[in-house]
Predict the 3D structure of the following.
Amino acid sequence: MNSEREKDTSASNRLPRSRDSRSAGDPAHIVESLAFSGDGPKVEDMENALRGLDVIYDTAVVRVPDDGQGEAAQAFIVRGNEVELDESGIKQAIRKKLPQQMVPKYITIIERLPKDESGRVLKDELAGVQVRIAQPTVPDELGPPEISVKGMGDFDQATWDAYVVSHQNSSPYHLSAFLRAVVQTYHLKAFFVTARRKGKVCGVLPLFHIPSLLMTPSLVSLPYCDYGGVLADDDQTLGSLLDVARDLRAKIKAPLLELRQTCQLPAEKVSNLGKHTVCSTEKVRMALKLEGTADSFFRKIPAKLRAQVRRPQKEGCSVRTGGMELLDDFYRVFTYNMRGLGSPVHPKSMMGNVLNEFGEYARLFVVYSKDKAPIACAMALFYEHMVVNPWASSDRRYQRIAPNMLLYWSMISYALERNYRVFDFGRSSEGEGTYRFKQQWGAEPEQLWWYSTYAGGIPPEESGDSGNRKKFIAVWRKLPLKATTVLGPMLRKGISL
């Protein structure tokens, strides 16, 4: 072994505070016992994969209780020589090299692993060490954060992503991969706001300026998805980022500022956006907890649902999973369905750019009829422990054989086989058809908090609302498919939903 690693140190048996996906404001949490689960890759396989990375000298992986989601992998890591990355940096380096199922949820850096004379890691000693959630430093002791506002060409995307994956409320939409895909597709003006203390990132806020002919021009975090918004380590940083959002809206003269959050913001900080800020709680995201194997999960869903999944299979349907090679078939179904809904469609380049930017963490699922025609499609993004479904469509002419049921089961089983723990069906309003569809799978609603600030304090009349919207939908549905495919992207750019 390297002599530098054999050098004893008083810190050998002390573990630094680890980053946890739970709230930084929670009381210190102590893991008192470690247990192994049969789900996911074997611990030994994960350890071997991690040891093959340059940034890691040695590692031991255990499974720890994970806030009601079963168990998660915790990796105790000895960094390679001259490697100075922190826990979030190590995790980002792992994500770039290994499949998602090999990425431990929690990372703890230590000086050396406790071992016996034969070199075997003494995991009982690791289990006996108190692993604590890092508590936030009192911001007043450090002063206000330094704020920078960058465009797509000059913000530090690696540092941004490292912070995003370390934050409990982050999503795949916060990653620079999605932000790049949006800019590449629509060439929007983007603002990437970063807060730092002593050079370390403590908050981020991505914003896009959405010009529009149909809707109110707006500054949004984030457009074309269900959620995004601000990420911050503490309330003072949150307030500073909201101040910047308010000032940017005024600078570009956007009538509307909108932040789509997965958690409620403190009321005293929301006022930073402006006194006319309102919060909508009409939407929820439908999240399905995934447990066990695909086979065991399938047996637990209602018998009627199982029969609906089998129906298209009995009709000769099949499913393909892949990437760019399925994009044409995906888009064929997607454009047909969106016209039927009376909604302008994204350009095919939007999905293509997402596939390119996310790589193996974005997959297309396409259901084919017995005649090999594409009849249902979806995209899934894989992030940390969850799978997010931003787009899905089915051809209503095949509704009788329910290809969408096989489509969703294909995504859910794919996620289960790779040890993901949550499947996010996307947003719905309580009681509507899509809500009930997602609910039958066992998905539960999680509140979304959409904050809107209007210039002048009065929400402007939307040209797409009420009777005008119904007229638009009726006309759009009657247009030739080719026309909606050409015109749709021109209008879709200005519709942030």
In short: Residues 1-38, 129-140 have pLDDT under 50 and may be disordered. The radius of gyration is 24 Å. Residues 324 and 352 are 7 Å apart (CA to CA).
